[in-house]
Design a protein that fits this description.
Helices cover 27% and strands 20% of the residues. It is α+β, with helices and mostly antiparallel strands. Helix 2 (118-144) packs across helix 3. The chain is elongated and about 85 Å long.
Amino acid sequence: MEDRIINTPIDCNEDCNCTFSVKDCCNKLNVYDWLSDINDPLAQSKYVEVRFKNTRKGIYENNLDLPLQVGDIVAVESSPGHDIGIVSAIGQIACYQMRKIRNLRLAEIKKIYRKARANDIKKWQEAIALERPTMLRTRELAEELNLSMKIGDTEFQGDKTKAIFYYIAEERVDFRELIKRMAEEFHIRIEMKQIGARQEAGRIGGIGPCGRELCCTTWMSDFKSVSTNSARLQELTLNPQKLAGQCSKLKCCLNYELGVYLDARKDFPENSSVLRTKEGDAHHIKNDIFKKQMYYEVRINDIPTIKILDVETVKGIVEQNKKGILPENVFEMEKTGSRSISYTDELNSESITRFDKAKKPKSKNKNRPKGRKQGKPQENMPKQENDNKHATEKKEE
């Protein structure tokens, strides 16, 4: 639900001095104020972070020294006119947010005019109500002009004098005719802003395969390039369906642990794809980086077999191969009775059925009479049956 929309009191007039604020909720790129419980009278109040629709944010100057709090709705400077936003960070947290902005010039920072009034809120709500029908109509115009572009989102300025249209296009698009028709129909100032697939996923939002909200929606604002080399260095299967995110691009989280893997791979030897031994050539398959083990395939008695070697052992074999020496008894069989417990073994041992009682085996002889039991002598049989049995034996003799 769009957290910009609030209920305006009906009794307020245009000249009312009431101020408005919204409660903090699950908004995009939310900022956690971990300094909120510290009462610092010397904390700066000059710069404030203000958020707008979806992931758009900005730093503004509080030149009037307004007593602002997180959640206050304010009217800020825009070009042209003014815009309406919600305060998302103040004090030292706002300074930390300023460091994330590249090439930020203090002289170019815009100002906060005032806290939003009832008239500002009313006009702001009217502008928000126009966003969706305007976006759908713009898509129809782009389709009529046969433009290869997708209008992903529309954001109106707080005073309804300007609108930003976010679009995605693989190639350069000439939309001059589109802007002319949009200006004639909507009677506002038009700004077209091109975004990528990752930015569109961040604006839409969603849940990732890890079960959490998308990183581009909650905290990530700087998108770094991700390549398949990141997955290869982490020994991940190059499966496009598993490596791609909701934006159809490689997942940004592939870069999170890349530095740790690069440090761990420094101990692994280079040029170790093939090891020459007296048992035959061993070809490298994969690595277990944190266990510092390397997997090799070697043919023993013309049967391909997978063997595991430590990194130090592989380094020694590589040095011997450089000298022309073929080591022997490299792939020895494991000793009987030894068992290495891995993480998966311990995980599988905690089965949910470990406390269940074993079921008794079902009897196979269901049609056997109750009086007869297997293994007992024939003397327990009825007397008449025993006499008949002896009579038949005498006749046979």
